[in-house]
Design brief:
single chain; globular
């Protein structure tokens, strides 16, 4: 595919993904995976799992972080700009329209009911990628406790997720340094 075509195709793809921002970046994971892994085959499943981990670790908007990484792989800086812009533009336009017309429907019962109906769907959109991530992370009897302890530390003890990421990164490094797991 020519570079101009890949720029336009990646922009369109991430614009389409950006149209479904209800629930934030995590709710977009199944859509991103379907488009970039299954449909276009721009990244592999393993790369997608790595991109999700990296995007979570980086500051900024989760979906845009993934878009930047995919775009950069496709066409370096130009690709990163095209995919980031494609992801952000729909949200920007929607928020702009809401800001312009919000006063006209802020007390509308139909709109309020629609948002109440969307909430449970967003929970499902976030839960499904979580289960898929756990499956793809190849948890075993030695590692299954890590996400459980991390979730409890964040939820019950109020530990910052940043500390969880730092400790997990150091733990993974030390594990690789001392135990050198076999390559697949």
């Amino acid at each position: 595919m020519q570079k101009a075509n890949i720029l336009w195709e990646s922009f369109k793809t991430f614009f389409k993904i950006g149209m479904f921002t209800l629930g934030g970046g995590y709710a977009m994971i199944p859509i991103i995976e379907e488009e970039v892994v299954n449909k276009h085959k721009w990244v592999s499943r393993e790369e997608m799992l790595d991109l999700i981990a990296i995007a979570q670790s980086c500051p900024g908007v989760f979906a845009i972080n993934i878009a930047i990484f995919v775009g950069y792989k496709l066409n370096k800086v130009r690709g990163a700009i095209a995919t980031a812009f494609g992801t952000a533009l729909p949200s920007f336009l929607i928020i702009l329209l809401i800001a312009i017309f919000f006063h006209q429907f802020e007390d509308n019962k139909v709109i309020a009911a629609m948002f109440r109906g969307i909430r449970p769907a967003v929970v499902a959109l976030i839960a499904i990628p979580t289960f898929n991530l756990a499956k793809n992370a190849q948890l075993n009897r030695y590692t299954f406790w890590i996400p459980i302890v991390s979730a409890i530390a964040i939820w019950l003890l109020g530990v910052s997720p940043i500390w969880i990421i730092i400790v997990a990164g150091i733990g993974g490094y030390l594990y690789g340094l001392f135990f050198k797991p076999s390559a697949k």
